[in-house]
């Protein structure tokens, strides 16, 4: 049994809820979910505990982390531009002697051109700084903190929009619209690669990683499917039985902040306020396309190598199941 703490596991943290469910289903762990509020969060599995914490108080965090083996963070990046909460968590983890830490990642390998994920880069750099001062135990030089970055790429579930295919992750549209037979592609980068992994597969791999007795790699890339834009469109046309309208945008226009496309995204994450939604949709579309052209979504495969027996959900089988017989 491993004692696990979850930071940011309440509110709109859909990915956290997927992973919490997978950890609970294993029946092997004691799970405590940190909450900023003083009242018990609703909807959490009965097998979990919850604890009020103040992310600005390191002493409080150290106290709450006593005896914890692994801390998984899902702290909302947009709500904390300077990433003070996660920095404090990392400091507290070191002070409390927590063995393992996973920061709030669960997406792309790179962060280039995705300003909404600047916080990820800040935390990656901070974790590197923390480990620059090594510790020596029994004449072995070890990291100050064992940590990993879980990077599954894009959720395959998003290609089912507007249909919900995960227990908690809500439908979201990004770059492809299977319902309306549309796709956006950067001209000349039709073979840009995207890693696509279901939310359920991510949760299953994280649950396995928690039990893994070896040392976590610094990066835990998860490759459910590795496909180019062209291959995704080809799959879409097969499962939908009709051609897609492919809007090709120029790299130089995107770099200039212009999205010359005939269609826009229809849904954004719940963490984005309604008055910011329109601007954020454009920002996400441009950032996703630019970053894809620069290999940001081509996740590495460390977790595939660590768990070679795990069978990931096939994109074509998944999308066929969702879209067959749909108008």
The fraction of residues assigned to DSSP E strands is: 15-25%
**How many whole angstroms does the radius of gyration measure?**
20 Å
Element order, helices and strands?
Answer: EHEEHEHEHEEEEEEEEHEEHEHHHH
**Portion of residues in helices?**
25-40%
Note the total helix count.
10
**Bulk shape:** globular
Question: How would you characterize the overall build of this protein?
Answer:
This protein has 327 residues and is α/β, with parallel strands linked by helices. It folds into 2 domains: 2-152 and 199-221, Rossmann fold (3-Layer(aba) Sandwich), CATH 3.40.50.720; 154-196 and 224-297 and 310-323, UDP-galactose 4-epimerase, domain 1 (Alpha-Beta Complex). Helix content is 33%, strand content 19%. It has helices at residues 14-26, 58-64, 84-96, 118-130, 199-211, 229-240, 251-255, 277-293, 302-306, 315-323, and strands spanning 2-7, 29-35, 49-52, 70-73, 100-102, 135-137, 140-142, 146-147, 149-151, 154-155, 176-177, 182-186, 193-197, 219-221, 225-228, 245-249. The strands form 5 sheets. It has a 6-stranded parallel sheet with strand order 3-2-1-4-5-8, with helices on both faces. Strands 10-13-15 form a 3-stranded mixed sheet. The chain has a 3-stranded mixed sheet with strand order 11-12-16. A hairpin with a 2-residue loop joins strand 6 and strand 7 (140-142). Helix 2 packs across helix 3. The longest helix has 17 residues, at 277-293. The chain is globular. 43% of the residues are buried. Belongs to the NmrA-type oxidoreductase family. Isoflavone reductase subfamily.
């Amino acid at each position: 049994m491993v004692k696990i703490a979850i930071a940011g596991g309440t509110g709109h943290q859909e990915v956290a809820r997927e992973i919490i469910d997978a950890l609970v289903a294993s029946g092997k762990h004691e799970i405590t979910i940190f909450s900023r509020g003083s009242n018990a969060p609703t909807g959490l599995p009965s097998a979990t505990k919850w604890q009020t914490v103040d992310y600005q108080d390191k002493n409080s965090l150290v106290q709450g982390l006593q005896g914890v083996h692994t801390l998984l963070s899902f702290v909302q990046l947009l709500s904390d531009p300077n990433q003070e909460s996660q920095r404090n968590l990392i400091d507290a983890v070191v002070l409390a002697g927590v063995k393992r830490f996973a920061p709030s990642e669960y997406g792309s390998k790179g962060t280039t051109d995705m300003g909404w994920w600047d916080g990820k880069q800040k935390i990656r750099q901070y974790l590197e700084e923390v480990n620059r001062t090594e510790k020596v135990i029994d004449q072995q030089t070890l990291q100050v903190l064992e940590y990993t970055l879980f990077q599954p790429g894009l959720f395959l579930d998003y290609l089912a929009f507007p249909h919900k295919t995960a227990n908690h992750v809500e439908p979201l549209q990004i770059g492809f619209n299977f319902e309306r037979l549309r796709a956006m592609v950067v001209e000349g980068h039709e073979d840009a690669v995207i890693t696509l992994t279901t939310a359920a597969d991510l949760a299953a791999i994280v649950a396995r990683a928690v039990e893994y007795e070896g040392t976590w790699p610094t990066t835990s890339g998860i490759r459910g499917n590795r496909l180019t834009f062209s291959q995704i469109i080809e799959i879409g046309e097969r499962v939908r039985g009709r051609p897609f309208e492919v809007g090709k945008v120029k790299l130089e226009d995107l770099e200039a902040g212009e999205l010359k496309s005939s269609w826009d995204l229809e849904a954004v994450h719940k963490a984005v306020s309604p008055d910011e939604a329109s601007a954020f949709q454009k920002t996400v579309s441009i950032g996703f396309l630019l970053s894809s052209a620069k290999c940001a979504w081509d996740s590495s495969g460390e977790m595939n190598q660590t768990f070679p027996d795990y069978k990931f959900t096939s994109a074509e089988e998944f999308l066929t199941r969702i879209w067959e017989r749909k108008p």
